[in-house]
Amino acid sequence: MALCLASIGMSPISADEPIIKGYLLFExxxxxxxxxxxxxxASPAFHDAPTKADWRTSIEIEAxxxxxxxxxxxxxxxxxxxxxxxxxxxxxxxxxxxxxxDETYENTVKVAFVSGWTNERQWNKVPTEQQSAQIPMxxxxxxxxxxxxxxxxxxxxxxxxxxxx
Length: 165
Hints:
Elements: E1 8-10, E2 24-30, H1 37-42, E3 52-56, E4 60-61, E5 69-77, E6 83-92, E7 94-100, E8 108-114, H2 127-130, E9 135-137, E10 143-151, E11 157-163
Antiparallel strand pairs: 1-5, 2-3, 2-5, 4-11, 5-10, 6-9, 6-11, 7-8, 7-10
């Protein structure tokens, strides 16, 4: 139930970069203490270049990567069908899933989050936080999507999923 690979495109860093269908940009900042997304935002490192960046085909990371880091994953979601969609997020430690009403970052709203931690792909630990409301989407339209994640120590995981009509 991970986010559909063929329906995701990259969010450009600059107007010169292409949109690459099927990939999201994953940026990682290492050496960032704390266990909340607010700790990631507050880190001076977050406002500089990431420690590393790579392209991924889903919003999911391998478990137990490392400690004291944060991730920002972003791109475009392109629904295959018009209808209502529901999103989920699971993580250890905290995470937030943001979705725009269109292709712009400026119209993003937080639709799901984890304020503490969950096990891998544990979609229902706190359903009122982890699951979005039904979100109407139009087939073929681009929607900006962003996930923020912060890991402190011990086991870590992150995954997002969706289901549509």
